[in-house]
Amino acid sequence: MTVERTELEWPYRPADFFEAPFHHQTPEYELAVDAGQAVVKLVTPQNPLPQEVRDRLDADIQALFQLRQLQVHKSYELKGPRVCQHHPGGTKSVAVSSSDAVLVTTGHLDIVHRDAAGTVIHDSKAERIRDDEALLHSVLPNVAGSPLLRGLLASYRAAVEDPANEFVHLYEVKDALVRHLGTEEAAGIALNIRPRRVTFLWLTSLQALVSRQEDEFDAAARV
Question: What is the pTM of this model?
């Protein structure tokens, strides 16, 4: 049967897990995340959709939500994907698979500064959204090809899911970075952590790694 459009959908909760609509595009698909639904639209419709493609797209979405969790330290539930094949005449067929990812909620105090004329000169929420989106766009393409990043994100997710053993999982982050860079000293230098502060700051090093990306750490390890 002819297919005009192939989409994959991932419902998620809470619906405000992303503060603003998030859009991302690759040569293969367009992604839109908003109001409790992540939707991937394939550039070229595929019917049937190969399992390898489905699994790869699902891995991209899982990575995106893990990266977002790193920014907000907030639990979430992600289901799917549902594969939707859109046919001529407006009909649609849906194939559903159920997989749940349930991941402490922190809030933000947002400040808007205006000058005497009422013009906004500083909007903390708008700036945070801009910075968050820049990080997601920058790092997401690298996750699939980096066992290190995938492992670090998995450890951070486990820390949020398992608060009774949060520090155990966070120390997994430290151990993985030390293995990657060879020594604790080399890893401390790459992350700009002074030796006397290593014990505490290792626990917050994951976002620094994601922000600066893996290639910078490889360069530091070769020095």
Answer: 0.64
Look at residues 76, 82, 81 and name the one whose alpha carbon lies nearest to residue 60.
Answer: 81
Sequence letter at residue 129: I
Q: Residue 58: how many CA atoms within 13 Å on its side-chain side?
A: 19
Q: What is the DSSP string of 85-117?
A: EE-GGG-EEEEE----EE---------EEE-TT
Do the Cβ atoms of 68 and 18 come closer than 8 Å?
A: yes
Please tell me whether residue 150 adopts helix, strand or coil conformation: helix
- Give percent of the chain above pLDDT 70: 75
Residues in the chain: 223
**Helix, strand, coil proportions of the chain in percent (round to 5)?**
50, 20, 30
Structure confidence by residue, pLDDT tens digits, 96-137: 764 544 433 334 445 656 666 667 776 777 888 888 899 899
Query: What does the alpha-carbon distance between residue 24 and residue 223 come to, in Å, rounded to a whole number?
Result: 35
Tokens of residue 20, six digits: 């603003």
